[in-house]
Amino acid sequence: MSEEELSCFYNKELIDKRKTQVFSKKASEISKRKFLRLDPKYYVFWDKTKGKLFESEKIDCVKLGQIIKLTKDKILKKGDLDKEYILIDKEDVDSKNGIIINENQVSKIDSDKVLFGEADILIPKLRPYLGGTFLNQKDKDLMGTPEFLPYSVDGKKLQKEYLKYILLSKDFLNLVSYLSSGKEHPRISSYDLESIEIPLPINDEKLTKQRKVIDLIEKKLGDLNEKRKLIENNRMKIENIIHQSLK
After folding, report:
1. Is 127 helix (H, G, I), strand (E, B) or coil?
2. Which domains, from first to last, does the chain contain?
3. Within 13 Å, how many C-alpha atoms sit on residue 65's CB side?
4. Is the pLDDT confidence value at 38 over 70?
5. Cβ distance 157 to 202 under 8 Å?
């Protein structure tokens, strides 16, 4: 599958075209959504994109709420724990690549935490435009801040890695700021997140196509990481040369 076959029209362009235009909204239309938000950009997103991150003539779009489901999270109360757990905070996740980069084993916590349990994917609701979505490691006792939304994925329709890369894409990160509320600590609600539509091949053959998308992305990420290592090695060599010359 070529990269051209994966291309979609990025819907943020629809919003950008409206920045210099007058936008009006009736109160009766505002009441149709669950949250009565008086935020123009919030309604520009829903009205102009119809909730879709992308437009694609080749692939149907599906609401996230139809393919993912919030798990019944177990809350671990602050204080001493019944055993050791691995604590994952936002800074322990590579926000761009969605990879856990640090694990802290703890037997005591200073505030309530969420046990990730059987969740497939964790999506941050605080400042979601910064990224930070990552996959759960079910073979470990991971827990973290309640700012992570734990979701299970319908594996018959969706490859969880495919969803992760959609939610880490610049397209999602740029648009999700239109849905966040709060000035100091902007958050996205699970309701709005689940109302977003993503391009999704969903039959058996197209699950294979999702896998091809994942493989293509991971190959490019692998190439990028190799280049980063080469740059870092060269930087250390340069620093050593400078250090030696100053002796």
Report:
1. coil
2. 3-62 (no CATH), 68-202 (3.90.220.20)
3. 9
4. no
5. yes
Neighbours of 5 (CB within 10 A): 11
Q: What is the pLDDT of residues 176-201, one digit of tens each?
A: 888 888 878 899 999 999 999 988 87
pTM: 0.76
Contact criterion met (CB below 8 Å) for 51 and 84: no
Distance CA 209, CA 202 (A): 9
Please, are residues 151 and 71 in contact by the beta-carbon 8 Å criterion? yes
Cα-flanking dihedrals φ and ψ of residue 200, to 5°? -145, 105
Q: For the chain, what is the mean pLDDT? A: 81
Q: Do residues 106 and 84 touch, judged by C-beta distance below 8 A? A: yes
Q: What is the C-alpha R_g of the chain?
A: 21
User: What is the β-pairing status of strands 134-135 and 121-124?
Assistant: antiparallel
Q: Which amino acid is at 227?
A: K
Question: In sequence order, which ranges of the chain are alpha helices (DSSP H)?
Answer: 12-16, 27-30, 40-49, 160-168, 170-176, 190-195, 204-245
| Nearest CA among 53, 88, 14, 1 for reference residue 167 | 53
Looking at residue 22, what is its pLDDT? Answer: 57
